[in-house]
Specification:
Catalytic activity: L-ornithine + H(+) = putrescine + CO2
Family: Belongs to the Orn/Lys/Arg decarboxylase class-II family.
Enzyme class: lyase
Number of strands: 18
Number of domains: 2
Structural class: alpha/beta
Mean pLDDT: 95
Low-confidence stretches: none
GO molecular function: ornithine decarboxylase activity
Keywords: Lyase, Pyridoxal phosphate
CATH architecture of the largest domain: Alpha-Beta Barrel
Order of helices and strands: HEHEHEHEHEHEEHEEHEHEHEEEEEEE
CATH superfamily of the largest domain: Alanine racemase
Strand content: 15-25%
Helix content: 25-40%
CATH class of the largest domain: Alpha Beta
Shape: elongated
Length: about 375
């Protein structure tokens, strides 16, 4: 959302070139909303969504824990002021030397999804706690996750038994229902799978205690999404449905839902043109595209709200593209984006809902364009 603080910042600072501006007040509001929605779940912010030091320090001060995908992210979280006990190494694909480094830094909670990963952790982080990620179908998510992560529940049983045998602490189960998940009931079948694994391990004398329910909590783009409280209610109902009165320890890992609506990208129209005299759609080229931070427009999965200085004028659909010399750098063509007919070169647009997965997706210098600048206010 374009908050007054963001509007004032852009008006007074007039930053040159495309940039992201994040309002920390919105981040704090989102954190408190998650805490109210699921008061008994520990919040582990997904650092990959936006690792700006100001965001990490704020969340650390509010009591957040951190889900990290690399040693670099672990070091960022530590620099923000949290103890290693508040960090999870949530990537299921880790080099053994990175496992060792994380262990040396004091991190003791690791994600796995296969026996081979368990064996690496047993060698490099003896005695660590591990949770096994199970597959989900991702239905209802605008940015579904693939079969790259997780294993079927039956295999998760074998993975955790092996972990126990190798001296690790088999702690629990994790899953991710897909990013920008708009179905509040999407967690139900995954929680049922977690209970299956819990029961199977209990029969083998291994008591699991943790269900990591992942992320997936959405931010608002062009469509309204359910409130955090709706997700909290649905998830709690599923937990009690499958676990009864003996509820496990639970974790949630909001990323997009924590910072997405806190950020706005300022961009400039570079060119407006057509490909022929009979072309039905104008092409509008911006100074930012897929390689500058808008990677989630791939397959037009995420459709961002766009504010223009000419809103209120007549609208026509257009193809929206980025500035680079790559034909893939087109954001919206399959479903053209409606923008004012009067839009012209030099107009500045605001792309809302861009606080998550933009700066971290931006290329370093493709075509010589600078990485996306970011300001946290």
């Amino acid at each position: 959302m374009v908050t007054q603080r963001i509007t004032d910042f852009l008006a007074t600072r007039r930053p040159e070139g495309p940039c992201l501006v994040v309002d920390l007040d919105v981040v704090e509001e989102n954190f408190r909303a998650f805490r109210r929605a699921l008061p008994d779940s520990a919040i582990f912010y997904a650092v990959k969504a936006n690792p700006a030091p100001e965001i990490l320090k704020l969340l650390a001060s509010l009591g957040s824990n951190f889900d990290c995908a690399s040693v670099a992210e672990i070091e960022m979280a530590l620099d923000a002021g949290v103890t290693p006990a508040r960090i999870s190494y949530g990537n299921t694909i880790k080099k053994e030397r990175d496992v060792a480094r994380a262990h040396d830094l004091g991190v003791s909670l690791f994600a796995v999804d296969c026996v081979e990963e368990v064996e690496k952790i047993a060698r490099s982080a003896p005695g660590a706690r591990v949770f096994c990620r199970v597959l989900t179908n991702g239905e209802g998510a605008e940015w579904p996750l693939s079969r790259k992560f997780g294993c079927v529940p039956a295999m998760a049983v074998d993975v955790l038994v092996t972990a126990n045998r190798l001296g690790l602490k088999a702690t629990g189960v994790s899953f991710h229902v897909g990013s920008q998940q708009t179905d509040t009931n999407a967690w139900d079948s995954a929680i049922a799978d977690a209970k299956f694994v819990f029961d199977a391990l209990a029969e083998k004398g291994i008591v699991l205690t943790l269900v990591n329910m992942g992320g997936g909590f959405p931010t608002r783009y062009l469509k309204d999404v359910p409130a955090s409280s709706a997700y909290g209610q649905a998830i709690f109902q599923s937990l009690t449905k499958h676990f009864g009165n003996r509820l496990p320890e639970t974790i949630i890992e909001p990323g997009r839902g924590m910072v997405g609506d806190a950020g706005v990208i300022k961009t400039e129209v570079v060119l407006v043109s057509k490909k022929s005299a009979t072309d039905e759609n104008r092409w509008v080229f911006l100074d930012i595209g897929k390689f500058g931070g808008l990677a989630e427009t791939m397959d037009e999965a995420i459709r961002y709200p766009i504010v223009t200085p000419r809103d209120g004028d007549a609208m026509e659909p257009c193809v929206l593209a980025g500035p680079t010399c790559d034909s893939a750098d087109v954001m919206y063509e399959k479903t053209p984006y409606p923008l004012p007919v009067s839009l012209t070169v030099g107009d500045e647009l605001l792309i809302e809902g861009t606080g998550a997965y933009t700066t971290t997706y931006a290329s370093v210098a493709f075509n010589g364009f600078e990485p996306l600048k970011a300001y946290v206010i």
